[in-house]
Specification:
CATH architecture: Beta Barrel
Distance between the termini: 41 Å
Number of helices: 3
Shape: globular
Helix content: 10-25%
CATH topology: Cyclophilin
Order of helices and strands: EEHEEEHEEEHEEE
CATH superfamily: Cyclophilin-like
Structural class: alpha+beta
Radius of gyration: 15 Å
CATH class: Mainly Beta
Strand content: 25-35%
Largest sheet: 9 strands, antiparallel
Number of strands: 11
Oligomer: single chain
Length: 192
């Protein structure tokens, strides 16, 4: 069985190719692919860059109701799985503390992040496009002033960097909808 291959086509013509790792984070991979089937990522501008740390593709659930859901933390759902280390060259899923893990808000670490292990699951690796991540890291940024958590610094590119579209090759495999968290409360940054 081959792992899914995802290609993120950026509006500037570059691309980032990912191999998803269902054995390392099965529910997270299911969630990413569920969001992809909904078209959640297409046309989205990258929302947050912390140049020494990571590139958050979204903190708003992609401004789409289809992307605004939470899933259980992967390693609470699958305690038998050993979390992979978070480092440059991988892709991780975000989280919201007690609320749960983000359903589809993924990010790219720009350094070794041992503090992520067991919290923000590594669910894929970058096969091509590391140079695009380094280009994004070096962009001119501006501070976001309306982010609802003032203790967290949020910067976005001065010139928006958009995903044109995302394509996936599943090699004939089926991936179910993710297990979701039943909740009433949403993260504050999804409410705007």
């Amino acid at each position: 069985m081959r792992n899914p291959i995802v290609t993120i086509y950026m509006e500037n013509g570059s691309r980032i190719v990912l191999e998803l790792l269902p054995e390392a984070a099965p529910n997270t991979v299911n969630s990413f692919l569920f969001a992809w089937r909904q078209g959640v990522f297409d046309g989205h501008a990258i929302e947050r860059i912390v140049p020494k740390d990571w590139i958050d593709v979204s903190y708003s659930g992609f401004h789409r109701q289809e992307g605004q859901y939470l899933i259980p933390y992967e390693y609470k759902l699958h305690p038998e799985i050993e979390p992979l280390p978070s480092d440059f060259g991988c892709v991780c899923m975000g989280g919201y503390g007690e609320l749960g893990q983000a359903g589809c808000e993924f990010f790219f670490p720009l350094r070794p992040c041992p503090e992520h292990r067991g919290i923000y699951p590594v669910f894929g690796r970058v096969l091509e496009g590391q140079e695009e991540l380094l280009r994004l890291k070096g962009l001119e940024l501006e501070r976001v002033t309306d982010y609802p958590y003032p203790e967290i610094e949020v910067n976005r590119p001065v010139i928006p960097q958009r995903i044109a579209r995302v394509e996936a090759e599943l090699f004939g495999q089926e991936y179910p909808e993710p297990v979701r968290v039943a909740h009433r409360e949403l993260p504050e940054c999804w409410k705007n």
